[in-house]
Write a structure and sequence with these properties.
Elements: H1 5-16, H2 22-32, E1 36-41, H3 48-59, E2 69-74, H4 81-89, E3 97-100, E4 124-128, E5 134-139, H5 147-152, E6 155-158, H6 165-177, E7 181-184, H7 190-199, E8 204-209, H8 210-216, H9 218-222, E9 226-232, H10 253-262, E10 271-274, H11 280-293, H12 297-305, E11 313-314, H13 315-326, H14 330-339
Parallel strand pairs: 1-2, 1-3, 6-7
Antiparallel strand pairs: 3-10, 4-10, 4-11, 5-8, 5-9
Helix pairs in contact: 2-11, 3-12, 6-10, 10-14
Length: 351
């Protein structure tokens, strides 16, 4: 259940403990003073990940020792796997670069996605800005009002690339539940999919954060232009009590287990990660600054104005989620990977 703003965040952040040891803070202050930290975003401008990251850039630096500048840098491609690979292999490993990728991207190597050239358990997870619930939504003229419409008739959705929720979630619905969704993928970012919906290129989007819907397309809700059919998470969102939860659609225990693996990344809804090899003291001050930002009244005021849902998930918790999924039985991971990637009988048209 999502508690209200500052009180909930203060409790979680206090539990996480965000006061750096004096020596670590002093060393970090010497390192970061006068430097710029590049915050990479795995998508184009205008979408949910981009919106969250730009708010972070405006507030996190003042909580870091040495008060470094922070600069947003978009690196879209392959549903943010391009950036995930860069964080793992090419970006600086000194604490001057970190980024945000699709919450499901971390699990792609575990699902044997050849495009994912990293070990997610080696990343330094800084934290997540929200525990997300995603939805499957369609333009009101598409004639998609219920889950049964998805299971009985073909409908076209837009996606951003393998590893992204926009691709993995509709494919999972097809392969596990027998839905008949068709996928046009290769859009640079979620905002591009939204524009495609408005242009009539696709009918909807399956794998769209509810927080992003509210912050980037609130008029679609007030004007009743969006029909919401399913929510993707481990628990329902309080805003959507009458929208079916994906787990409740499972017909047996095995299906439910596969769905739980695919959607296990939802609690790390807006994740931030630094490369492997960043010195431990700098990882600590990055986590501490992130946690402190999340209870900063100025940050919360801007987030509220932008209609961003905020719920702190500390870096240690994100790290534990990734390790828990990585430790699951290989056969379950294999089936979950196939469920979220197998594309038989699906239109794949790169934009």
């Amino acid at each position: 259940m999502k508690m209200s703003g500052l009180h909930r965040l203060a409790l979680v952040a206090a539990a996480a403990g965000f006061c750096a040891a004096p020596a670590a803070a002093q060393d970090a202050a010497s390192f970061y003073k006068g430097k710029t930290i590049d915050v990479y975003i795995g998508y184009t401008t205008g979408g949910g990940y981009d919106t969250y990251a730009r708010v972070l850039v405006r507030h996190m630096g003042k909580h870091l020792p040495g008060n470094p500048n922070m600069t947003p840098r978009n690196m879209p491609g392959a549903g943010s796997l391009l950036l995930a690979n860069a964080i793992a292999n090419t970006l600086p490993k000194d604490g001057t670069a970190f980024g945000t990728v699709a919450r499901g991207a971390a699990f792609e190597p575990l699902f044997d996605n050849a495009q994912a050239k990293f070990d997610p358990t080696k990343f330094n997870w800084i934290g997540s800005m929200n525990n997300e619930v995603s939805i499957c939504g369609f333009w009101n003229t598409a004639g998609v009002k219920t889950v049964e419409d998805l299971l009985t008739k073909p409908h076209v959705v837009g996606g951003t690339g393998p590893g992204a929720d926009t691709d993995n979630f509709p494919l999972t619905m097809n392969n596990v539940l027998g839905a008949k969704l068709k996928l046009i993928t290769g859009y640079p970012g979620g905002n591009d999919v939204n524009l495609a919906i408005e242009r009539g290129e696709v009918e909807g989007r399956c794998g769209w954060s509810w927080s992003s819907v509210k912050s980037t397309r609130p008029q679609w809700l007030t004007e009743k232009k969006l029909d919401i059919t399913v929510q993707f998470a481990l628990e329902k969102h309080p805003d959507l009590p009458n929208v079916p939860l994906i787990l409740d659609l499972a017909k047996n225990d095995r299906q439910r287990q596969i769905l739980e693996v695919v959607f296990s990344g939802q609690p790390m809804g807006r994740p931030y990660l630094a490369p492997p090899g960043v010195p431990a003291d700098r990882v600590k001050v990055l986590r501490d600054a992130f946690n402190a930002m999340m209870v900063d009244p100025e940050f919360l005021a801007e987030a509220e104005k932008a209609k961003l849902e905020i719920e702190l998930v500390p870096g240690e918790k994100v790290e534990n989620i990734v390790k828990k999924v990585a430790a699951m039985p290989k056969d379950v991971l294999k089936e979950a990977g196939e469920a979220s990637s197998k594309r038989e009988n699906v239109i794949i048209e790169k934009k």
